[in-house]
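Quick one - first record:
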Amino acid sequence: MTSPPTHSTDSTARLAKCFHALADNVEQVVKGKRDTVELALICLFAEGHLLIEDVPGTGKTTLARCLAASIEADFARVQFTPDLLPSDITGVTVYRQNTGTFEFLPGPVFANIVLGDEINRASPKTQSALLEVMEERRVTADGTAHPVPRPFMVLATQNPVDMGGTYPLPEAQLDRFLMRITVGYPDHASEVAILTGTRAGTRTGTAPTPESLTPVTTAHEIAELIASAGEVQVADALYDYLVRVVAATRALPDVRLGASPRGSVALLRAVRVRAASQSRPYAFPEDVKALAGPVLAHRLILTPEAELSGRTGTDVIDEVLATVRLDSGARV
């Protein structure tokens, strides 16, 4: 492996500065979860969508709201329920009697950041309303395409327990999420800080909330930085390694359906952002290893036998990363 250049481009340095300012801001509320917060931000700058899956009370919705509150941008929240209709999300075309014309009224999906709370509680018909906008960033109504603003990110939450009355997300929709992450329980010190409202070394007596956060950047700056992330250099050997990792998920006997080429593209975008967030204008194999789980695990469909034995997509990704090696003669 050759030594990469030691200098950082202006664009990656600017992205890294904004990235860590956002992470620090979110951590005022979501305490002790720096790795999780950074994964969410990687998803944002990779212009992907994020699925946060965890048990109730761990801060899934709070994380999404804090991220939205840290950016001066349009934000919309949709509480998914069984009676929610597709038009409640995408919008509806109405007839104006005074003008004799039809007018499209945009739904909440026409925002920079859209929070879909408990997304698996809506019917499959309503869930499918997000398929087009999550992939193509537009909504087609009555034959007319209406683009959503940029940047555009869907943050969805769901609980892996209490599945009564829920509709599991279909594979096609899961594949549209760039990452699936969990928040997990805070450590002891972080939970004490949540209760005491500890902030900047002092006890305020009041725990900070998403509403108390001040935006540290704008939607316009985020859009500019998303474009700059594409400038991160990726060596041919790293392209090869990334593709071999994804292809390996399709060859294991425990996997019925492996990651698609969309997974390869998603992983590459995330890898570039992780490198830029560390002020590096180049990507490392370690970037692939760090992000393969969150980006690929939810795209895998295991065999019934593997599921019964307790295997998960994360276990499969760990096995792949342990077996697929970077070419020893490659230059990265």
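second record:
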Amino acid sequence: MAGGAVSNSTYTSTTPVGGKQPSYLFPFILVTSLFFLWGLAYGLLDVLNKHFQEVLNITPRRSTLLQGAYFGAYFLMALPAGAFMNKFGYKKGIIMGLLLYAAGAFLFFPAANALNFDFFLLALFILACGLACLETAANPYVTVLGSPATSEQRLNLSQCFNGLGSFLGPIIGGALFFGSGKDDLSTVKLTYIVIGIVVLLIAGFFYKTTLPEIKEDVAEGPEVVADERPLFSHRHFVLGVVAQFFYVAAQVGVGALFINYVTTYWKGASNEKGAYLLSAGMVLFLAGRFVGTAIMRKVAPNKLLALFAIINVALCAVVMSGSGALSVYALIAVFFFMSIMFPTIFALGVKDLGKNTKKGASFIVMSIVGGAAVPYLMGVVTEAQSLAFSYGIPLVCFIVVFYYGALGYRRK
């Protein structure tokens, strides 16, 4: 594939059938379903943010603690999840993640009964600990289920289903939380109880299904030299962690106050309209995944990453102007150009790590903590300056992503 060096890792399964290398198609389909689950959880998050502001009477800055709990869980859980999978394998790591996901979803019921925002933060933290396990397992698992040369394409394809879940989340939240006519948390309770039941069923399905356990081995051959360097001596990996931190910071910041932005700068816009426009952004996000995956057949992933990042820098500048509907449209367009960033940075960052792939994946997932800090910082800037001005923070983050796509991805 253009722009992508062939990985120096080979991948083998512990479950060969009849002495032949097993097909990875069904495991790929099954694991890809997980991407939808955490996309749905994320799609609901930004709608919950605005809903809690009104029902629980909290400020936008305090409501961004939801993002803090959600992405803080990734930071705290990623390394333990990676260590667990190193010892017990991908399958058990996925099941553990699904069980934590379900537990957190069920805790939304007592939290809603108590009308306690701190209780919601705890429930969301537990739910996100499960998501951290799923991402730590599923992202690298997809990259090794096939040829290393097409790992970025495979991961972008799987992430398309993440985009589908992210698209449906605001639609569900907008219809149930804002469109029900009830100014309470009854629909929140129902939504998360249903989610918890579905996740438990999927966990049972994984338990009953045989999955190949992929091992990362170092290849030996005339054209590939074994790379035994320590993990943090890989410059492209270290810069990948940094780039992912700033990308997720930008993505979460863009979405966290999206509905607030729409109702502030689009005259007469309601919360429900804001939720549906957020869903429109998620449609573009999903479309961008498919379009980006197709373009990567002809264009190097790092070059496409750099191009999309610099476009988002320009779009964020328009958003900062607070120019009514025009700035809202620019904000929606940002989602399209963010679409390929997470999986592309991830795949470029773990490429050629060999036996360190699982550990490297854990650190890249840890970098998602950027999403915990930036929304709160944007809330502070909003109170001190303006909501439009706070979008200068994602602008700076996209500049960092541009550098990684242009230069930082290179492997020595």
